[in-house]
Design goal:
Elements lengths: L3 H26 L5 E7 L18 H9 L1 E7 L5 H10 L33 H7 L3 E7 L17 E5 L21 E2 L10 H16 L4 E6 L11 H5 L7 H26 L6 E7 L27 H4 L3 E4 L8 E8 L3 H8 L16 H4 L10 E6 L2 E6 L2 E5 L6 E4 L15 H17 L9 H10 L11
Parallel strand pairs: 1-6, 1-7, 2-9, 3-4, 3-6
Antiparallel strand pairs: 2-8, 4-5, 7-8, 10-11, 11-12, 12-13
């Protein structure tokens, strides 16, 4: 018998083994499609986490998320108020590009109530992941339209537990109640009586993870806390008895409870053995409201400004990424990033790319996070909300208001925006103002507006005094 067939047999066996080994190595280097958990705090002050400098509030679970993943120190939301910020987050497009410039409010004269919500021609992150086979859930606040056509169940979410408006009572959810105290929506079971909203949101997130741990999922944990109404559990209030101001004490207790429920979710991911393949992001929808008349007791220290302003205190937010299978751990990135970047980054992680014709504003951060790209993700970012607009290019930030000359700040030297150098840097001021103006005039008209008197109030907030040092 010839030895040739035997050698051919050995050759094919070796070829198969080598091919299998290389495939296994390639598979190990390229993690499978991750689960996604997007945790969004509501009206959280920048300086109100211990990882961002708070000396009053201990947030060990959020701190651990930052320590175990990637922390961004120059992260921004796309608007300084809830609804437009969420519109940008959910679409990856700057909301001004589709007319969602203002917060949701009572319908104003001349505007059609059919358009008060996220425009139907915009595709959400949930819809994109749903088409990829992900099970999707929204737990908590929606605030992107209350008409049936705007329902999260029609915008890509398989499940919804929560409320449609901008806020909800933390202890009451009554059948027949008003928008603040009404019964919570639940698409998959009869909702249980409300205990404490933040705890119940955490429990629903844990339940979703347990039910869907065996296939890819997207969980949008959209917390109500620490948005008003300012209501806390009495046992949490006792932890902050040393704080004299009751508003601040209540706020601290609410952030503490938020952190406990972030920990609850992270612990469940770990307990189910899916931590390595779960991509978790934490951020706030905007800065804390700490201006007179709207304060929830938050602090944006060391930044000046409040929710509703395009000062740093209104738009700079904590942002942390964690995906053990693919991202570095324990690093800090100082380059400028945006909440708009989350959608393209998640989609890349899920194995798909975005067609440039879609004009997504956000950028995929994966090459930057993995060290394959040295260039910063953004050259410029821009914001606009009622009376204020702003542009940041590198470390320079220009703010335009209707009743004064433009203001220019060099953030690396002046993060609290105390020293306006617009007249000292006239060429730079003119250039940045022109770029901002070009962007604004090319944006479409708003599809709805806020009441006129809101703009007068917002303008006053630019001249308010803000605490920019952390209290002990």
């Amino acid at each position: 018998m010839s030895s040739k067939p035997f050698y051919l047999f050995v050759y094919f066996v070796l070829f198969f083994l080598v091919h299998a080994a290389l495939s296994a190595m390639s598979s190990a280097d390229s993690p499978k499609r991750p689960n996604f958990i997007l945790m969004l705090a509501d009206d959280l002050g920048y300086g109100d986490l211990s990882v961002t400098g708070s000396k009053q509030i201990s947030t060990p679970h959020i701190d651990a998320l930052a320590a175990d993943g990637v922390r961004f120190t120059n992260a921004y939301c796309s608007s300084s108020v809830c609804a437009p910020s969420r519109a940008g987050l959910m679409t990856g497009r700057h909301q001004a590009s589709f007319g969602f410039r203002d917060n949701l409010a009572p319908v104003q004269p001349g505007h059609d109530p059919e358009f008060v919500g996220l425009p139907m021609n915009q595709t959400t992150l949930a819809q994109r992941l749903q088409t990829l086979g992900y099970t999707t859930s929204l737990v908590g606040k929606w605030h992107l339209g209350e008409l049936p056509k705007f329902s999260p169940l029609k915008r890509g979410f398989d499940e919804f537990w929560g409320f449609l408006g901008g806020s909800h009572d933390y202890f009451r959810a009554d059948l027949g109640g008003n928008a603040m105290t009404g019964q919570l929506h639940c698409s998959y079971k009869e909702p249980a009586p409300l205990t404490y909203l933040t705890d119940d949101q955490g429990n629903e997130c844990v339940d979703f993870i347990r039910r869907h741990k065996d296939r890819p999922f997207f969980l949008f944990a959209s917390f109500a806390a620490p948005h008003s109404p300012m209501q806390a559990i009495e046992e949490d209030m006792k932890l902050f008895d040393h704080i004299e101001d009751r508003l601040r004490r209540t706020y601290c207790a609410m952030v503490y409870r938020l952190d406990q429920n972030v920990g609850k979710i992270l612990n469940e991911v770990r307990a189910q053995g899916i931590e390595r393949e779960t991509f978790v992001v934490f951020l706030s929808d905007n800065g804390g409201p700490c201006a007179p008349g709207i304060s929830n007791g938050s602090l944006n220290a060391p930044f000046r400004g409040s929710k509703t302003t395009v000062l740093e205190g209104g738009i700079r937010v904590p942002m942390f990424f964690k995906w053990p299978a693919a991202l570095p751990t324990g690093i800090t990135k100082d380059e400028m990033v945006s909440s708009l970047d989350i959608l393209p980054t998640f989609l890349t992680a899920a194995g798909v790319s975005i067609n440039p014709s879609e004009r997504i504003t956000g950028v995929d951060l994966m090459p930057f996070l993995r060290g394959n790209q040295e260039q910063p993700p953004h050259e410029s970012l821009m914001w606009t909300y009622t009376v204020g607009s702003a542009i940041r290019t590198d470390d320079w930030k220009l703010i335009r208001l209707p009743d004064r000359l433009p203001m220019l700040y060099h953030l690396s030297d002046d993060p609290s925006e105390q020293n306006d150098v617009a007249l000292e840097q006239l060429d730079r001021t003119r250039s940045m103002l022109a770029e901002l103006g070009k962007w604004e005039v090319q944006s479409p008209n708003p599809v709805f507006r806020e009441p006129d008197d809101w703009r007068l109030r917002h303008l006053k907030f630019y001249d308010s005094d803000y605490r920019m040092v952390q209290p002990e």
